[in-house]
Amino acid sequence: MFYIISGTNRPNSRSFEIAKLVKPLYEKNFSKVEIINLEDLNLNQLQNSHYGDSPKPPEVSSAIEKLDASQGLLVVCPEYNGSMPGALKYFIDFWSYPKTFEYRPVGFIGLGGQFGGLRPVEHLQQVFGYRNSFILPNRVFIQNVWSVLKDGKIENETINQLLKEQAEKFSLFIKGLEQQKLSANFL
Question: Domain spanning 2-186: which superfamily?
Answer without folding.
Answer: Flavodoxin domain (3.40.50.360)
